Amino acid sequence: MSITINSHVDFNQIKGVIFDLDGTLANSNPNFEGLRAELGIKPGTDILSYVNSITEPTLAEQTHAIIKHYELESSHDATWIAGAQQLMAFLTSLHIPQAILTRNMPEAAHITLANLDLTVGTDFDPLLTRFDAKAKPHPEGVERICAKWQIKPANILFVGDYLFDLQTANNAGTRSVLYTPSLIPDYANQADIVCSSYLTLIDYFHSQLQT
Hints:
This protein is α/β, with parallel strands linked by helices. It has 8 helices and 7 strands. It is globular.
């Protein structure tokens, strides 16, 4: 699988693109399996929902510290995902605004962006973390970006690598791309487009511009 179209997206109608960060633009996903094991929670548990449910202050502080350690550790080793830099350059050449919406913490996100040599306000704008808007899959982050850009959600493309990204797109009313370089997850049918190669995605969109 290089690209699968579940629902046609007219790229000519896309006026803005919102990216997830870890696993979408950067090889910077924390070791979620190890993190859940250290926290003593089941595989697949939403880590942010878990930590937000903790009411005991000491446990909450310890849990936040563990999560911060994992996020910072992974961000220091961040590298570009293959083709992501070219996709952003392609969008820039078309004067399509770009933003990043991440569930990560600001400090880790900025370290990742520094490794990619990306600058907020120059290469994209804005950057919203879980400290700036309700965490995905809540649509608040997308809604704030749409308001800033003055673009309707229907004209936004959300690009991500996980279920939360697709749920966010669906909740906000945007179109969606799921980037999955290897195995196709069972929730892939929730995306408008599923791709394993950003270069193929660029070719697909470029062909629409010529029609």
